[in-house]
Inverse folding.
């Protein structure tokens, strides 16, 4: 980046930067640096080019705000550029030296039909459908200069080999023959900045589940099957009042700590993601919980991971009504599968975990009666609370043997 101080980049950034193709598809496993590299490249273009229009999009605005939007803003601050740009927070735009960047969801395609863009980024591209892509692709028509072609960038995990991105673009000879396509595959091995603890977690997937290892470890196409839970109902509005509110808490440090609010209304459950953050000490967690749960509501039940009794005791001492959960995994899953769950679009980690939460398979493809232990922190927190609370309410478990 010629006008930005020296920054750390990966090989994936270099490959993305060197491509002059119209379609640049970054397919990668967990933490492979694919999204980070695209964000860095677009910032470089924002700084070094003139008169360009950037469209950063995701399926919904709440999820976009918490991912690509936040990433670019954070990087602008880290690189010392943010104070130089004109950031309109209400309109979700950034202006800099004749360039214009817009962050917008694609839930209303009419919003972008009358616009022309030089660069478009589809974050979590497999959330989009083919028709939405066509609408976006036809708007990639901004004025160009030599050496700076218009480009559309994709970033996604390879968790569905039947996705239109693979079937209609990557495997379509028309794009390859026209030399308008670059596909960049990546894995955690392409990101030298990962801490060793997370690398160990990813490498543990090889023994945990071959398909998960293929997708999230190696960054190769696969297909997730044997998903445990049916899709949650995504609501834009929640009830104004609930019958009862509780919380589920899964502890982590290198893994995220997850605090999920679980609200009951007419026997159905509404979820709100409150905390999903790594490297939290217990004291930091307590301070966050004080901001999230007002003192007048600290008598609400919180169910925590029994593997951390000392942390539960400390949180209790801070004035929260926290108790150890019943960690019966299969009984808890069985109970949760009988409930109706509602979620918000902005519960990005809850929603993403649900979509990928599956039963483990061995190397012979035999489905085991155990969930895959990866990206399950919100799922665990929800199960802890919902199942343990049901036992405290005296609900009857009926079993046929």
């Amino acid at each position: 980046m010629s006008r930005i101080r020296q920054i750390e980049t990966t090989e994936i950034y270099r490959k993305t930067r060197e491509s002059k193709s119209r379609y640049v598809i970054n397919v990668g496993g967990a933490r492979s640096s694919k999204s980070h590299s695209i964000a860095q490249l677009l910032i470089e273009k924002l700084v070094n080019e003139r008169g360009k229009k950037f469209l950063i999009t995701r399926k919904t605005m709440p999820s976009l705000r918490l991912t690509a939007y936040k990433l670019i803003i954070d990087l602008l601050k880290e690189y010392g550029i943010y104070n130089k740009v004109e950031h309109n927070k209400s309109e979700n735009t950034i202006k800099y030296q004749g360039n214009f960047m817009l962050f917008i969801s694609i839930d209303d395609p009419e919003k972008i039909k009358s616009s022309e863009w030089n660069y478009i980024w589809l974050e979590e591209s497999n959330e989009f459908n083919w028709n939405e892509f066509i609408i976006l692709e036809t708007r990639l028509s901004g004025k160009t200069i030599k050496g700076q072609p218009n480009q559309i960038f994709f970033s996604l995990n390879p968790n569905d080999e039947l996705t239109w991105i693979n079937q209609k673009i990557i495997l379509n000879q028309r794009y390859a023959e026209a030399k308008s396509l670059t596909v960049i595959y990546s894995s955690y091995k392409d990101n030298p900045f990962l801490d060793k603890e997370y690398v160990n977690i990813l490498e543990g997937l090889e023994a945990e589940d071959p398909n998960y290892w293929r997708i999230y470890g190696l960054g190769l196409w696969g297909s997730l099957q044997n998903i445990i839970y049916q899709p949650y109902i995504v609501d834009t509005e929640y009830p104004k009042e609930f019958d009862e509110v509780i919380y589920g808490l899964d502890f982590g440090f290198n893994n995220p700590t997850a605090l999920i609010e679980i609200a009951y209304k007419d026997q159905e459950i509404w979820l709100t993601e409150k905390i999903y953050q790594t490297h939290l000490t217990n004291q930091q967690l307590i301070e966050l919980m004080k901001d999230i749960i007002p003192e007048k509501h600290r008598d609400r039940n919180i169910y925590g991971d029994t593997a951390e009794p000392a942390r539960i005791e400390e949180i209790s001492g801070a004035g929260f009504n926290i108790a150890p959960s019943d960690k019966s995994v299969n009984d808890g899953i069985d109970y949760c599968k009988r409930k109706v769950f509602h979620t918000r679009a902005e519960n990005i980690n809850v929603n993403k975990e649900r979509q990928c939460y599956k039963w483990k398979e061995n190397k012979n493809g035999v489905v085991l009666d155990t969930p895959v232990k990866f990206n399950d922190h919100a799922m665990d927190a929800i199960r802890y609370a919902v199942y343990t609370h049901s036992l405290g309410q005296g609900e009857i478990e009926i079993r046929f043997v």
